[in-house]
Design brief:
- The protein is mostly helical and about 375 residues long.
- The protein has helices at about 1-20, 20-30, 35-55, 65-75, 90-120, 125-145, 160-170, 170-175, 185-225, 225-245, 255-260, 265-280, 285-295, 300-315, 320-330, 335-340, 350-365, 365-380.
- Helix 6 runs antiparallel to helix 7 (about 160-170) and helix 12 (about 265-280) packs antiparallel against helix 13 (about 285-295).
- It is globular and about 80 Å long.
- The chain starts with a helix and ends with a helix.
Length: about 375
């Protein structure tokens, strides 16, 4: 029980630090100003920035091997990859394979752990040694996965499934229930077999409930309030992503915005899709942010301001929304609002200069001048 309680507390703290600035500040206070704080802070930032992608593709994921360019295009707003994974195995699976994939991965891992524990207690002496090794490997993998996902995006990805595969393949041979009568009286043997059948049925009921609960959660996500618009937004986002990233190649295209202005992709189709979603559900953050990003890439600053302002009111923590809305506020001559939006926003990958170049290239120096003035003033303050 102590191990279970400790694990639950750790999960609550990790989730709390990722979602709540208050919890984050309280937990990091003892290590403030140290290298450990900077390390933890960078991990938390990576986790937070993966969440909008899970929101965009909750039911399908963005696709295997897509994280680097999806993060660059729709989170960091860069023309080349910056991070190649979400620095969390669980978030990485959710980003690329959606919530169904995450549920499958967690369910497989928990089933493997359960088999490992049974094998450890009921297997032969040699089997217990194998169980201890496989179980230790699976536990180490799950702990490692809390803060990194390097194995998932490299050539060693098959090793992720090796401990679970060993437990699934070998454990049943030593722990399958038997209905053979125990030595002794007939009555005693019958009672023993009956008790074993009852225990087995109870265990199966628990396993069935454990499998049904995540599926019920997915049904609520799909069929609950906003479920239809959530599904449509997922389909539109994954379609837009596939079309854009299949055609985008740097330096042939200097930025993804240039591709959206061209005739190489059918941007108007995705505009119509997102507008239809907003007709059904005006609070769909994915449709608001994606449509705002398209409008900004095409120079429609006033329309973009309305869309991104609505997205920001609904999800003020999302990085891409803050950066894009700050840009359009500056372009429209509202540097004070732009500065507030960019406060504490990590732009260390060179986004301001990149975006200024784009506005000058696409709309001319005169149109980009308010943004250039804003950047000069901001740089003078730093």
């Amino acid at each position: 029980w102590s191990v279970t309680v400790g694990l639950l507390i750790s999960i609550v703290l990790l989730v709390g630090m990722t979602l709540s600035p208050t919890v984050r500040a309280a937990v990091l206070q003892p290590v403030a100003g140290t290298y450990l704080e900077r390390t933890i802070d960078s991990r938390l930032a990576a986790w937070q920035e993966a969440l909008p992608l899970i929101q965009d593709y909750p039911l399908t994921g963005s696709g295997l091997g897509s994280t680097a360019m999806v993060l660059a295009s729709y989170v960091y707003l860069l023309h080349v990859p910056y991070l190649y994974h979400a620095h969390s195995l669980y978030l990485q699976v959710a980003v690329e394979q959606g919530l169904p994939g995450l549920i499958g991965w967690v369910g497989m891992s928990l089933s493997a752990l359960g088999l490992g524990v049974l094998w450890l207690h009921e297997g032969t002496q040699q089997g217990r040694l194998c169980a201890a090794g496989a179980l230790a490997a699976q536990i180490a993998l799950l702990i490692y996965g809390a803060t990194d996902a390097e194995l998932y995006v490299g050539i060693f990805v098959p090793f992720l499934f090796l401990p679970a595969a060993l437990l699934f393949a070998c454990a049943p041979h030593g722990i399958l229930p038997t209905t053979e009568e125990a030595p002794g009286s007939l009555v005693g043997g019958t009672e023993s077999a009956g008790q074993q059948r009852v225990a087995t049925h109870g265990r199966r009921r628990q396993q069935s409930m454990g499998a049904l609960l995540p599926l019920l959660g997915l049904l609520v996500l799909l069929m609950g309030p906003g479920g239809e618009s959530r599904w449509l937004a997922n389909q539109s986002a994954i379609g837009q992503t596939r079309q854009e990233l299949a055609r985008y190649e740097w330096p042939l295209w200097p930025l993804q915005d240039a591709l959206r202005r061209s005739d190489e992709i059918d941007t108007e189709h995705w505009v119509a899709q997102y507008e239809a979603i907003l007709q059904r559900d005006p609070t769909n953050v994915t449709a608001l942010r994606r449509l705002g990003q398209i409008a900004l890439s095409q120079g429609d600053y006033a329309h973009d301001d309305r869309l991104l302002s609505a997205a920001y009111r609904l999800a003020p923590q999302q990085r891409a929304t803050r950066q894009l809305l700050g840009e359009v506020k500056a372009l429209l001559g509202n540097p004070t609002e732009a500065a507030a939006l960019w406060q504490n926003l990590d732009l260390s990958q060179g986004q301001p200069d990149l975006r200024l170049w784009w506005y000058e290239h696409a709309d001319g120096a005169a149109a980009a001048q308010p943004f250039a003035d804003f950047l000069k003033h901001r740089q003078s303050l730093h």
